[in-house]
């Protein structure tokens, strides 16, 4: 190895001083503890590998004692920078590291690749990693390289084994790793069938590093390594790599007589390596083609069957849904525009499927115009119907082909596991049967293999179409139900309740709101409700009504929407309504489901001055302990709490306890769904603050509410013998 002139000067000085300084000197070396075959921990927890034996030889040659510490890569760099180590082994020289370290000459070439789950296609370079979470080793050169390539979504792990473990758990599905340890850990941890190398990221050279400016240690390291003979290095490589990598000794022994033969050998070796790489590349290509469709790049039937067998073969298999999707009128496109246009349409449909179903487990192309979508999380009849609706809308958008726009639809057949089958073959067969029924019933239909579920799905899909039209046409309206203070009998709030006058008779809010929540339509609906309720209260105040609050329900999706405070600021500013006159009701079930995200949003809303209450309290395994940490002012009892009042002593005791605990936390208690005078009298005795229900008034359109309010400025608690006060 040829050293730089300055380095040779340092070596010469060191050799003059060596007899005086070697005795008692210790060289502290650190390296990565999970980089086989160079350096890794054995079953006894001690360092093993090529580097360990190499430093033992170095120690023998120089007489300087070496303390080798194998640790995780980030810690190794920290030890060197903090002075706890003198040398770091197996390090790449990068622009970022040159400011911190001085480096030896290179001693090994290393290839680095990006590895992906076999079910992911289209990853052919750093640009394709955008939007993916990439696993890396903390402190690895991969981190800097990926950042320079514009990839910022990185998940750092202490070591390579941790990366492979996370990939097997599907915490990550893409990772960057050096080729040698990747091959070792994928084979050892049985991940080599699940992950493939998507592309070679870069090639670099191993060096040894010292702290910037420590030329004496650098010279010592280089001098000692130069004393190790080629034969000794060859023995180390045979021991740890299993093959000879250095032909120099043979070339020197052969002399000039063998130069021609060695030249031919080198040429043959290069040709063999080139052939080997070509074979490996071709093998990877063939393996990819064996499991993926050449036209769309999607997994094929074999890959789908393999994934289905994996999921259905688990002891506690979760519910699955298989959606067989067939493009309507695809044959006409082929006949009229040609097969090239048909291929472009299929490629466009494949991309739209991935965009429409981001939560899919796998999307496969089975040939022709037939696709299959596999869902393995949050599988319910309603969620699958919502997904089918998104697929049909996405695939029915016009396709630009051959200078014109082509419109095709999609028919869908659905089978569910375990309802319609417990193995992949049965699920595929039943999904095809359902698809056949859907196509026979007319283009654009969706059928479940289970006929009763098909009826439900048809109803839900029809509901989705009409909901979107209702949002566009402004077909919703708000009704208002008063909330009355039990002590004074005065109205303290009005709850805004969504109504759909033009909807089907059985499409009540409790039916269409969950579907809107599932499909994401609840967000525009929720914004409409909030804005109209605030504007209505501002109008009533302008008409001379006294101040009372407007109570509006938030959906679980709205309760985690970070843009909600900004939306409210705009609406309140536009109407001039004071924030404390708006009270937002968050269902307890949504609060328990989203936890920290909802709590953070509530803090932001409270800082605006908006009032907050927990709706349907008692339905989410309630604990008043968590209420202490939330900025809520009131809880609204679930109707089930009132069902037994006043006759059932158990119900009475529970309501009394909840009221007492809420008051101890300075919270108001609201009782909804009060139907009978006996219930109101009992709630008054127990100390409830506010009541609401048909006993006083049903929910009314804005004009009727205004008339009712003017006719009932004070509402006394009716006795059991009184007639309930009802709205006109």
Automatic annotation (TrEMBL):
What organism, scientifically named, is this protein from?
Answer: Dyella lutea
Which SUPFAM superfamilies has this protein been placed in? EAL domain-like, Nucleotide cyclase, Periplasmic binding protein-like II
Residue runs in coiled coils:
none
Q: Which CDD domains match?
A: EAL (cd01948), GGDEF (cd01949), PBP2_HisK_like_1 (cd13706)
One Pfam annotation reads EAL
Q: Which residues form the EAL domain?
A: 460-713
For this UniProt entry, which residues form the secretion signal? none
UniProt-recorded name of the protein: EAL domain-containing protein
InterPro entries tied to this protein: Biofilm_reg_signaling, EAL_dom, EAL_sf, GGDEF_dom, Nucleotide_cyclase, Rev_trsase/Diguanyl_cyclase, Solute-binding_3/MltF_N
Keywords assigned by UniProt?
Membrane, Transmembrane, Transmembrane helix
Residue stretches spanning the membrane: 253-274
DNA-binding is among the record's keywords: no
Q: Which residues form the GGDEF domain?
A: 318-451
In its keyword annotation, does this UniProt entry include Transmembrane? yes
